[in-house]
Write a structure and sequence with these properties.
It is built from no helices and 8 strands. It has 108 residues and is mainly β. It has a 5-stranded antiparallel sheet, with no helix packed on it. The chain is globular.
Length: 108
């Protein structure tokens, strides 16, 4: 699979493609075109997430009000149950991220 293939021209919603699923590991390709989290919605995941930006830009906001902005080749580790939301994703170019979700192994 090529991570840049099979992406529609227009994305009315974020496109999430499961690339691998295992009992304690999940890898997704996430493609956004200007989408962001709904106001007052916070992700509170039971697994840690390692995020890598392949194209475009994304900005994440944490419950304490802090923000982190990521561009191509930037990575970020979001620990399990760290409340966050997507504040911004680029439209042109689309934001393409690889998200690796895992439980246990690297949480220490």
């Amino acid at each position: 699979m090529n991570l840049f293939n099979d992406i529609p021209q227009d994305l009315p919603e974020e496109l999430v493609t499961d690339l691998l699923k295992h009992k304690s590991l999940r890898i997704e390709r996430i493609v956004s075109q200007g989408q962001s989290s709904v106001k007052d919605f916070w992700y509170d995941q039971g697994e840690s997430e390692y995020l890598c930006v392949l194209q475009g830009e994304i900005s994440l906001e944490y419950l304490d009000g802090s923000k982190v902005e990521l561009a191509v080749a930037d990575t970020l580790l979001i620990p399990a149950h760290c409340k966050h939301r997507v504040a911004y994703t680029s439209s042109e170019p689309k934001c393409i991220c690889l998200a690796i979700f895992y439980k246990g192994v690297c949480d220490d």
